[in-house]
Design brief:
There is one protein chain. The protein is of the alpha+beta class. The chain has helices spanning about 1-50, 100-110, and strands at about 55-60, 65-75, 75-85, 90-95, 120-125, 130-140, 145-150, 155-160. The chain is built from two helices and eight strands; from the N terminus they run H-E-E-E-E-H-E-E-E-E. The chain has a four-stranded antiparallel β-sheet with strand order 1-2-3-4, covered by helices on one side. A four-stranded antiparallel β-sheet has the order 5-6-7-8, covered by helices on one side. A hairpin with a 2-residue loop joins strand 2 and strand 3. The N and C termini lie far apart (about 50 Å).
């Protein structure tokens, strides 16, 4: 009986160690992929644009996949949308002050009088070559919802509710 108990404990510890190692390896391989995508996007953007300092790079996977770079160019904050597949989607450049801000996008969302329990994320993306703020939120029924507002004028570009 003691041998079986010792064997089961040893097997459980071995499975736990393998699980931890596998989780660690998966996490770091994903982080490496994201870092590689960001560096690749910055290098592609440098071929098209001149900028001084990169503040952030975020991924967007909507109708087209983009890496959105926030950077300074001659002292002005800029956004650069770098497509993952340049043959399918255009490069886009906007001065941050020429579009609506993240805060304004959230205010417009609340102005729509939708059922909003909590906001999950607000990020820049693009729909058919037009820059947008994509807002992901949960409603009172715990359904995911997406509303996209055009970066240039704040008008609604897309609405996907109750997923």
């Amino acid at each position: 009986m003691r041998r079986i108990k010792a064997w089961l404990i040893t097997a459980a510890i071995a499975v736990f160690i393998l699980f931890c190692f596998g989780s660690w390896k998966l996490y770091f391989s994903n982080m490496h992929f994201q870092d590689h995508s960001a560096v690749s996007a910055i290098n592609k953007a440098k071929k098209w644009y001149h900028f001084d300092h990169v503040k952030s790079v975020t991924a967007y996977h909507g109708t087209d996949a983009y890496q959105v770079i926030q950077a300074k160019q001659k002292g002005k904050m800029m956004y650069f949308w770098v497509p993952d597949h340049p043959k399918k989607a255009p490069y886009i450049e906007r001065q941050a002050s020429k579009g609506i801000t993240k805060k304004q996008a959230i205010q417009r969302l609340f102005g729509e009088r939708l059922d909003i329990k909590s906001i999950i994320s607000v990020r820049l993306g693009a729909i058919h070559g037009h820059p947008v703020w994509e807002i992901t939120f949960m409603n009172s029924k715990n359904n995911y919802n997406y509303v996209s507002l055009y970066f240039d004028n704040g008008k609604e570009a897309q609405r996907i509710l109750n997923l």
